[in-house]
């Protein structure tokens, strides 16, 4: 193995790649833009939209209630929602988002309330629609308070203690450290993007240094040199790996900076230090650990992309091979975001999914060292196989001179 | 010297099955000679030259190039061969200087020798005016000069040219033809393929007519003319191929 020859090829390919606009965009611009957009942009946008929805006074319909003037007067008095005249097509109006919710007050509601008889108030809403949900929540709050007040009054009338209907409180307290709370809330997204960027960072140089060379006719020029094909492919592989790692490092750095800025901006908006998003803390140890876990995956991606695009005759053909690979990579990464998917020794052997899951745990502050070692090892084995395939393919004339 | 010994190259094609692109080709080109492989498109010229340059491995037979066997010692063959073809393109994003430097380094030249060699080549080929310009910004003639400098940087004793003037204008083609003559003057062994009869008449000491992968006739131009009794090379070529 001649390190000198590998070094010569690597240096040239690096210079060549750094002069390629597409490689520069995928390696530098994308990670520098995606993370701030994801954390600051998306975060601020969702909070702003949430705030707008919260501030809106929802329009609601009251169906029935003619025989309950007291309740109707109270409903009209509240500023939490605005009552609009009742119509029979209330369901349609809710679905069309003309009104947010409707409440149906049963007949003789007030009379039954006074008599201590049970009755049912029905709230109609658009499930999953944020503003309708807020409207329904406010109606529910109104009627819950009315019910509590009614219980209190009934108890007082019978000279019974108020806590008869409320014998004890239930208090939920979080004991997990803030970084774990943050990790559970949003932690899965971060490794998902790092893995994706690792792949996109390697994509263009891999295609350019193989299928691109074939298309431009430089592969034959290169094969005239006395350097062995193994050295040529390793030099090329190292260039692709550099691009992938550079993308990952830029993504991690950009993510750390964006989180800092994003948290400050979020705090300025919400003024609530207890907000789950504000609990996300990414430690230096976490960042370094993510980097080392992602490293063999970057090796695997680089070698696999190189082998795949080596097979293609042209840049376009390479793109058509690699596009489906994006889906293959995205699927396990998304699977790691599903609730309840936990890292196990079996899952630690599934490429991409294992890295995604362990990174999520690392962000959450949990370090299962035995599983981390297993993931590093299995990813390294996959990477080794992919490199061997790339080297083998580079020796094959039918691949190099595919027409 | 180049000595092709019963070279055979078979490819597997999905539609046509096994195709024999070169079938038992043998010829010899001595030092200081130019050997021309004359043949129509698809005759097997490129495949033969690629085997001599060790870019392809023969299915059967072998060749001795600059004293090394192309099958047993391809890397040593490559250190002594300069290969130029219409398909050997330049790296567009490298400058003319970087391109030649890269290949000099790949051929194992140390930095001092490389610098001296580049200075000499760039002066001889009048390339100093565009040495720092990117290859994709060069004219066809300039690109040809960079390609020539690339093939000569390691001072090979054997030169292989595969249709080197294909697609070039008169001036660029002239540069190549003069360069081939210069190689012979410098006592290099030269093999080149073409289907341009005038180039063969102008340059070759010996000619091989190749068709359907087989070498049908071989000798000096005078030998072939007397053997077939035809003076016009084009007519001679057609007669050999059709017979």
Question: How does this model look, in words?
Answer:
The complex is a heterodimer of chains A (403) and B (243). By secondary structure, chain A is mostly helical. Chain A is 68% helix and 4% strand. Chain A contains 16 helices and four strands. Chain A has helices spanning 3-18, 21-55, 69-77, 90-95, 109-115, 130-157, 178-186, 189-209, 211-216, 218-223, 229-270, 284-311, 315-335, 353-363, 369-395, 397-400, and strands at 59-64, 82-84, 101-105, 122-125. In chain A, strands 2-1-3-4 form a four-stranded mixed sheet. Chain A is elongated and about 100 Å long. The radius of gyration of chain B is 18 Å and the shape is globular. In chain B, the strands form two sheets. A six-stranded mixed sheet of chain B has the order 6-7-8-3-9-10, sandwiched between helices. In chain B, 44% of the residues are buried. In chain B, β4 and β5 (68-69) form a beta hairpin. Chain B has helices at 45-52, 74-79, 96-106, 111-124, 140-152, 170-185, 197-203, 221-228, 233-242, and strands at 2-13, 17-29, 34-38, 60-65, 68-69, 81-85, 158-162, 189-194, 206-211, 214-219. Chain B contains nine helices and ten strands. The mean pLDDT of chain B is 91. The two termini of chain B are 31 Å apart. With 243 residues, chain B is of the alpha/beta class. Chain A binds chain B through residues 5, 8-9, 12, 15-16, 19-20, 216-218, 220-221, 223-228, 397-398, 401, and chain B through 11-12, 53, 55-57, 75-76, 78-79, 81-83, 85, 87-94, 98, 102-103, 105-108, 150-151.
Structural topology:
The complex is a heterodimer of chains A (403) and B (243).
Chain A: H1 3-18, H2 21-55, E1 59-64, H3 69-77, E2 82-84, H4 90-95, E3 101-105, H5 109-115, E4 122-125, H6 130-157, H7 178-186, H8 189-209, H9 211-216, H10 218-223, H11 229-270, H12 284-311, H13 315-335, H14 353-363, H15 369-395, H16 397-400
Parallel strand pairs in A: 1-2, 1-3
Antiparallel strand pairs in A: 3-4
Chain B: E1 2-13, E2 17-29, E3 34-38, H1 45-52, E4 60-65, E5 68-69, H2 74-79, E6 81-85, H3 96-106, H4 111-124, H5 140-152, E7 158-162, H6 170-185, E8 189-194, H7 197-203, E9 206-211, E10 214-219, H8 221-228, H9 233-242
Helix pairs in contact in B: 3-4, 3-5, 5-6, 8-9
């Amino acid at each position: 193995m001649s390190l000198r020859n590998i070094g010569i090829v690597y240096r040239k390919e690096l210079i060549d790649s750094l002069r390629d606009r597409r490689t520069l965009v995928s390696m530098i611009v994308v990670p520098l833009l995606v993370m701030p957009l994801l954390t600051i942009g998306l975060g601020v946008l969702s909070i702003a939209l949430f705030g707008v929805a919260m501030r809106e006074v929802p329009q609601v319909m009251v169906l029935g209630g003619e025989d309950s003037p007291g309740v109707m007067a109270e409903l009209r008095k509240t500023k939490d929602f605005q009552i609009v005249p009742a119509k029979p097509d209330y369901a349609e109006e809710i679905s069309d988002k003309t009104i947010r919710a409707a409440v149906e007050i049963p007949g003789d509601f007030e009379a039954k309330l006074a008599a201590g008889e049970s009755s049912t108030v029905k709230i109609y809403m658009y499930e999953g629609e944020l503003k309708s949900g807020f409207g329904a929540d406010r109606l529910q709050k109104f009627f819950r308070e009315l019910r509590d007040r009614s219980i209190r009054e009934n108890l007082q009338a019978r000279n019974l203690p108020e806590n008869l209907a409320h014998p004890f409180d239930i208090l939920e307290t979080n004991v997990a450290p803030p970084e774990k709370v943050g990790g559970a809330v949003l932690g899965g997204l971060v490794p998902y993007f790092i893995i994706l960027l690792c792949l996109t960072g390697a994509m263009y140089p891999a295609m350019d240094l193989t299928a691109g060379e074939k298309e431009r006719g430089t592969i034959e020029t290169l094969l005239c040199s006395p350097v062995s094909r193994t050295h040529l492919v390793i030099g090329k592989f190292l260039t692709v790996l550099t691009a992938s790692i550079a993308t990952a490092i830029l993504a991690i750095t950009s993510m750390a900076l964006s989180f800092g800025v994003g948290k400050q901006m979020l705090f300025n908006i919400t003024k609530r230090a207890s907000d789950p998003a504000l609990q996300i803390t990414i430690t230096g140890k976490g960042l370094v650990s993510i980097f080392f876990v992602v490293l063999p995956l970057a090796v695997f991606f680089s070698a696999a992309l190189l082998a795949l695009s080596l097979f293609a005759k042209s840049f376009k053909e390479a793109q058509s091979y690699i596009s489906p690979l994006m889906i293959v990579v995205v699927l396990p990464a998304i699977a790691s975001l599903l609730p309840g998917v936990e890292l196990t020794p079996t899952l630690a052997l599934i490429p991409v999914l294992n890295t995604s899951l362990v990174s999520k745990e690392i962000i959450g502050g949990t370090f299962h060292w035995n599983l981390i070692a297993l993931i590093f090892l299995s990813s390294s084995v996959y990477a080794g196989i992919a490199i061997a395939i790339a080297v083998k393919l580079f020796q094959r004339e039918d691949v190099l001179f595919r027409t | 010297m180049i000595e092709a010994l019963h070279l055979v190259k078979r490819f597997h094609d999905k539609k046509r099955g096994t195709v024999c692109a070169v079938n038992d080709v043998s010829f010899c080109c001595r030092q200081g000679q130019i050997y021309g492989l004359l043949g129509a498109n698809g005759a097997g010229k490129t495949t033969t030259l690629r085997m001599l340059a060790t870019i392809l491995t023969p299915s059967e037979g072998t060749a001795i190039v600059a004293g090394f066997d192309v099958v047993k010692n391809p890397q040593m063959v490559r250190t002594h061969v300069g290969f130029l073809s219409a398909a050997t393109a330049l790296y567009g994003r490298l400058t003319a200087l970087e391109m030649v430097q890269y290949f000099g380094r790949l051929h194992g030249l140390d930095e001092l020798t490389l610098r001296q060699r580049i200075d000499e080549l760039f002066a001889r080929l009048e390339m100093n005016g565009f040495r720092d310009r990117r290859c994709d910004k060069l004219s066809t003639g300039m690109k040809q000069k960079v390609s020539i400098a690339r093939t000569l940087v390691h001072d090979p004793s054997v030169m292989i040219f595969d249709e080197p003037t294909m697609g070039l204008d008169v001036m660029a083609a002239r540069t190549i033809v003069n360069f081939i003559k210069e190689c012979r003057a410098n006592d290099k062994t030269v093999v080149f393929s073409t289907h341009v009869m005038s180039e063969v008449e102008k340059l070759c000491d010996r000619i091989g007519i190749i068709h359907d992968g087989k070498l049908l006739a071989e000798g000096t131009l005078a030998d072939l003319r007397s053997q077939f009794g035809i003076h016009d090379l084009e007519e001679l070529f057609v007669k050999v191929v059709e017979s």
